[in-house]
Design a protein that fits this description.
Layout (H helix, E strand, L loop, with lengths): L1 E5 L4 H12 L3 E6 L7 H8 L4 E3 L14 E4 L13 H22 L2 E7 L22 H20 L3 E6 L2 E2 L8 H11 L3 E4 L5 E3 L1 E2 H14 L5 E4 L4 E3 H12 L5 E4 L14 H7 L7 H18 L1
Parallel strand pairs: 1-2, 1-4, 2-3, 4-5, 5-6, 6-11, 7-10, 8-13
Antiparallel strand pairs: 9-12
Helix pairs in contact: 1-6, 3-4, 5-7, 5-9, 7-9
Bound molecules: nicotinamide-adenine-dinucleotide.
Nicotinamide-adenine-dinucleotide binds next to helix 1, strand 2, helix 3 and strand 5.
Length: 305
């Protein structure tokens, strides 16, 4: 089958495109290679993949013969206050509107990568999908807007969309602005790590291979209109993740304590009952195994540089 993966030069998108190719599918990657982080990393992610440079905020997707679109392109990162908001609007709302409209016209199913950030500081933990969304970052607000756009295109134009709310995805090639990536890099280089908050904030860490499995399972089996959390089974605090990485690497991390960043929630905990029930997905990678894989990846890169 033929699939489009938007954001294919990014962290999750490149893993997804690789997996689909390995399964024998024809994969057309799309990415505008934004400079949110080092473009060289994206070029490295895209090596060996078919990735076309295209800005979805201004250009249309070609969907002839395509069975499904995995829409992962977007502007991530919760530190989204200030003038950068225009980029969040453009790369999330404007780009997704074009993707959804195009897919609706072509009758092509879309799996959209939304975020646990739409919940903000949630009313309930673990958080089921029907919890009231109360995002506390401009990023979360644009992601929630994208979800609503998908729903509007479903209602008005018959779009078949599935929304996946990803919870803190980690693993090799993780975005360099994310905490685990910064920790393994600091450990590998012997550099200090800036910890925002006191480290008691917790996350449903989700290994990237599990995130990829969830997207493919949703494309294959989810009912149209479904909204699912995709989160790792074990919740851990930042301190616990740091302890685990110190153990795995056999090194000690020098911490520089910084105030809590605005837009960062205290806790995320995914209730994944719905996706387990409907499509049979659950996270299977233990946190220690996933952190070990990311540590080895980062340590090898630093050693080779
Ligand atoms: N990594 C996580 O923990 C996480 C959690 C929740 C949701 N998500 C969502 O999953 C998706 C992938 O996240 P990621 O961590 O791999 O991010 P990433 O930044 O590595 O990948 C996103 C890619 O989209 C591309 N892109 C941005 N705007 C574009 C446009 N207008 N046209 C074409 N390409 C464009 C970027 O160049 C980038 O390569 C994002 O939508 C993100 O919001 C990620």
């Amino acid at each position: 089958m033929k699939f489009v993966v938007t954001g294919a030069a990014g962290f999750i998108g490149s893993h997804l495109a690789e997996r689909l190719s390995a399964q024998g599918h024809d994969v057309a990657g799309i990415d505008s290679f934004t400079d949110y982080y080092d473009v060289a990393l994206k070029e490295e992610n895209a090596r060996g993949l078919d990735v076309q440079r295209l800005d979805l905020a201004v250009e249309d997707l070609e969907l002839d013969g395509v069975h499904g679109v995995f829409h992962l392109a977007g502007q991530p990162g919760v530190r989204s206050f200030g003038d950068v908001f225009d980029e969040y609007v453009n790369r999330n709302l404007v780009a997704s509107r074009r993707v959804f409209e195009r897919a609706a016209r072509a009758g092509v199913r879309v799996v959209f990568a939304s975020s646990s950030s739409i919940y903000g500081d949630a009313e309930r933990y673990p958080t089921p999908e029907d919890t009231e969304p109360r995002p506390i970052s401009p990023y979360g607000i644009t992601k929630l807007g994208c979800e609503q756009l998908a729903r509007a295109y479903a209602q008005g134009f018959g779009l078949e969309a599935i929304v996946l709310r990803y919870f803190t995805v980690y693993g090799p090639r993780q975005r360099p602005d994310m905490a685990v990536a910064r920790i393994v890099d600091a450990l590998a280089r012997g550099a200090p790590f800036e910890l925002y908050g006191d480290g008691s904030q917790s996350r449903s860490f989700t290994y990237v291979a599990d995130a990829v499995d969830g997207a493919i399972a949703a494309m294959e089996r989810a009912p149209a209109g479904a909204v699912y959390n995709v989160g790792g089974g074990a919740e851990a605090t930042m301190r616990e993740a740091i302890d685990a990485l110190e153990r795995i690497s056999g090194r000690t991390l020098e911490l520089l304590e910084r105030p809590v960043a605005k837009g960062d929630v205290r806790r995320t905990a995914a209730d994944t009952t719905a996706i387990a029930r409907d499509v049979g997905w659950r996270a299977t990678t233990p946190l220690d195994d996933g952190l070990q894989a990311q540590w080895e990846w980062a340590a090898n890169r630093v050693a080779a540089s």
